[in-house]
Predict the 3D structure of the following.
Amino acid sequence: MKPSDLLHADLIVAGASEVVTPDPAMPGSVRRIPDGVVAIGGENILAVGTSDEVALLVDSSQAMQVDAAGGLVVPGFVDCHTHLLFGGSRAREYTARLTGDPAALESLGVPTGIAASVDMTRAASDEELLTAAMGRLDAMMAQGTTTAESKTGYGLNAVQELRLLLLNCRLEADHPIDVVSTLMAAHDFPPGATGSQRDAYVDLIVEEIIPAAAEEGGVEFNDVFCDEGYFTVDQARRVLEAGRAVNLEPKIHTDQYSHLGGAELAADLAVVSADHLNFATD
């Protein structure tokens, strides 16, 4: 290759004991490159390989050199299931569950489960939620995460769910990690909702929250918790089909506590991902 045809790198990472990268010749496998080099230009990886391989493709004469100091260089981790935005802490509840007595907290009037996080999230200011989420993202980045999905689901009404989506957009704009936003208004029903109130909340999600989220933009996926005590298969189908109608790709939490049929729904709708699946069958 002529010098004029070489790609121009801004950054060279060298000095690693090993570079591990997906192997394009064998999908699903990885290539391990002792003393490998990574060449970067702008936001693109230009070349990965041995120093000789990279030198054939890339002009690194003006590039910043980063010494990996014998470390292992791998692609960034993608965390595809997080709830970054939530208020407060459920440490007391966690401790009670470890001791086998969460009912003791409930008898004292201490909220537990998703409802507890909903109460604390609604009570927190935007800046409190953002500051806490930024700290979580910092910790994730320090461990190698470069992309994270952030689900809503601790608002459980139109105003709060849309607020969380807007805060996701701020996280994406202000943090080096790529934050991918998922609407999960169907994480649970609003605290205290029973019977027809639950059906009314499904109507609200389908008729108001999902269309508003799609119009606002910045959200890619639509998720639902389909399980015993949460959304039925029929309700989950309504939620996911409503999202798909406005180009929000479907995801599902399901079959965590019982075999409700959510895994079959996931297959029928060809969802992007199905999570938990503790009780899924063949």
